Input
Amino acid sequence: MNILAINPWIYDFAAYDFWLKPYGFLVILNYLQKNGINVDYIDCLDGKITEATFGRGKYPNEIVEKPEVFKSIPRYFKRYGIPLKEFEAKIPEKKFDYILITSSMTYWYPGIIEAVKILRRKFPATKIILGGTYATLCNTHAKTTSGCDLVFSNEQLENFFKTIGVDFNYNKLYESLPAYEDFYTKLDYIVLRTSWGCPFNCNYCAIKKLFPGFFRLPEEKVINFIKKYSAKGIKNFVLYDDAFFYEPAYAKSILKKIDELKLNINFHTPNALHLRFLDCDLALLLKKTGFTNPHFGLETLNPSLQKLWGDKVNRQDLVEGINLLKGAGFKNGEFSVYLLLGFPRQDLDSLKKDVEFLNSLGGRVSLAEFSPVPGTTLFEEYPKEFNEPLLQNNSIFGFFQNEKIRIFWEIKNFVRELNKKLQEEKLF
Ligand code: SF4
Output
């Protein structure tokens, strides 16, 4: 059986390769290959135009027409990724049994529509199947709008395998890690998971819809995977785990083995680590195994918002966690903490105080822009208009008018300045 697999473009006001890879899709493609299926793969986001630190960089991009709902926003709307002509040239001249398209952020769906348009012209009789985050969280919208023949949410994965006639083995699938060399000719970094899902239940997060439960990979598989790519010269490893520290004994055991191997690599944690599970040993292991600017989840120090958002970390956990990091050798400005910006009932003065407090402790602040995510308990409180995925885009702050958005930009600049000062202190 021949399958053509596509990771489509991003359509947005801004996009940057912050270690973005369609990880779950690559795991599925790997599984299909192991089941004897020929896979041709096109990643529309492969091919950065700048090389920034740790393998990150800018995507090629082109201004495109703004969707009607964005007409009043005075910013360019763009397609990020390879030019359309390059995409067409990459499509192999052969017959495919199925075309698989993955999806990520719900509001990037115009990239799927564009890909379907081109692929339909070339393969009018081939079934196009959509899966991934948008297909899961906006299933009805994807069925009516994407132009794909079949749309499967993550919980329908077994049906997907049945449809294409491949055996589904849950453990085998989730225990596997991608064979990147089969899909990419150039690798600037490697993304991996040691686990799927998250045992917590923050009410703004859709993880339970995307992966119910919590699944750990066998340690040996993770270690061998890291050894394999380190031997190929990869320096930057990006942990996509949502709860790497949950059951800290597992994290410690993996990191001890990595430390013994003396691989001289960096780890990055864009999905955040849990401060509450940090202890002295774990903090030391982070330092010894090359965790670079580790990111931790906090979201807010406001007690009522903490309660509302899942009560993961309080002020005391934060102070104790930062002391442990410093005890392990992380200096001011060498670790980051996420705060959420743009929640409808958020008191922005108290957010500014949180920023100042974190800065006084030596932590860089990473502002995560709040967005309405379908499938979350909070989403049920939002007006119906947010059912349109384009309005779920965090960068437009869909809940707010211009004056409030201006204050958000002030806070963003304020954070940038404070982080810069920490960076400068680090250098002198
Ligand atoms: S926000 Fe993080 S900790 Fe909370 S449920 Fe989602 S993945 Fe888990």
